[in-house]
Design a protein that fits this description.
Length: 395
């Protein structure tokens, strides 16, 4: 039996069992919590260099089956990869083409999958972005409402403000800002499926006079400073490194003098924005977010500043996103039978790995999430922000 497996595996001590296509089993450690069922004989050779990308791709394509809780699968497979794959940090930054047509197709691939599928594991407002846990014990619903509130307070929204929501998704934040803070909202998305449902929910809440949502590329936004405040949540990950300058200049042009711009998004661990090692980033690029590129905090901050905006506050929510993804993953795992009716089998495999894997990645510090608040100062350099942050946390 030992001769049928790469020698490198024989010296490992992991809670992992390999079950081959012929029924033979090989246990790498005591009390295995995960079993990898190898269905394709050609996969055995790949276990000499089991990158996270290769393991994930094999599962998605049905060459492997995984037994055990999805969280334990991610942990054990990472330990396997660490033991056998050298992470020398030599991965090159992703450089993708980001024109309007390519970006629209990438957004459609990810977000137009199935509204019903997303509803199975998101909160009732379908906030597909990092929640905000004020104590750590909140439900997902509570934490997403807290996120909306936290963002609106940071923007110092006032009744009558005109808010631009770039990448409005299913419209949860737009509706919350309109209803709770009395603002007018103009939201844009590139997902037709999101737009259709978002408009239905705006109408159902009677907010048509306050909330307008359109299918629009950020590059086509008006540049006349008509908006009092601008918010972009989970959007700039799709922009691409090469387009960050244009993206930031577009937000600058959209907001009035004295107005605030909030950018909430995932940031890279490495300064040059290269993906995390051992193939995890490659898997996400291939199967989850085509053309997605994560900038480091320093990269996006530099572009925001060069565009003419002054950064006034930065907050990391890395652990908040790990907790959010744990909730999403758990909810999806609890609804696998229903999810299988909404999306193809391969898509479900991708999302199971993606949600659990990202929760693990955020917890490990492979990626981060930052809220960056900036102001477009008046010509004399002044602005109207309070002297302290007290108003953000005081009801």
């Amino acid at each position: 039996m030992l001769a049928q497996l790469p020698p490198a595996l024989q010296n490992l001590h992991l809670p992992l069992r390999l079950r081959l296509w012929d029924g033979h089993e090989f246990t790498l450690g005591a009390d295995p919590s995960v079993t990898i069922v190898v269905k394709d004989p050609q996969m055995v050779a790949q276990f000499t260099h089991p990158s996270l990308s290769a393991l994930g791709a094999a599962f998605v394509e049905g060459k492997l089956e995984l037994e055990g809780s999805i969280n334990e699968v991610i942990r054990v497979c990472d330990e396997l990869s660490q033991a056998l794959v050298e992470d020398d940090g030599a991965n090159q930054p992703v450089r993708s083409v980001h024109d309007k047509e390519t970006d629209a197709k990438a957004i459609s691939y990810h977000y137009d999958l199935s509204n019903a599928f997303y509803q199975l594991w998101l909160d009732s407002d379908m906030a597909y972005s990092c929640a905000y846990f004020e104590t750590g014990s909140e439900t997902l619903e509570q934490a997403q409402q807290a996120k909306f509130r936290h963002l609106c307070r940071k923007l110092r929204l006032q009744p009558g403000d005109y808010l631009l929501d770039v990448g409005c998704g299913w419209g949860g934040l737009a509706r919350y800002a309109a209803q709770e803070f009395g603002v007018r909202v103009f939201g844009i998305t590139l997902s037709q499926a999101q737009l259709t449902l978002a408009r239905e929910r705006v109408k159902a809440q009677g907010l048509e006079d306050q909330v307008e949502l359109q299918l629009l590329d950020y590059r086509d936004l008006p540049q006349d400073g008509r908006f009092d405040k601008v918010i972009s949540v989970g959007m700039f990950e799709h922009v691409g490194h090469a387009n960050l300058q244009q993206y930031c200049k577009t937000l600058f042009g959209a907001v009035r003098e004295g107005g605030l711009v909030m950018n909430h998004g995932i940031t890279a661990k490495h300064i040059d924005g290269r993906p995390v090692g051992r193939g995890a980033g490659e898997f996400i690029e291939k199967y989850v977010f085509p053309n997605g590129e994560l900038p480091h905090l320093s990269m996006i901050s530099a572009q925001i500043s060069e565009a003419g905006l002054e950064i006034v506050d930065v907050e990391s929510l890395r652990m908040h996103y790990a907790r959010t993804l744990d909730h999403w993953s758990e909810r999806l795992e609890d609804n696998l039978e229903a999810a299988a009716k909404e999306v193809p089998e391969q898509a479900l495999r991708i999302w199971r790995l993606y949600l659990a894997g990202c929760a693990y990645a955020f917890a490990k510090g492979w990626i981060n999430l930052h809220q960056i608040l900036a102001v477009k100062t008046h010509a004399d350099g002044s602005h109207e922000l309070p002297w302290t942050r007290d108003d953000i946390y005081t009801p």
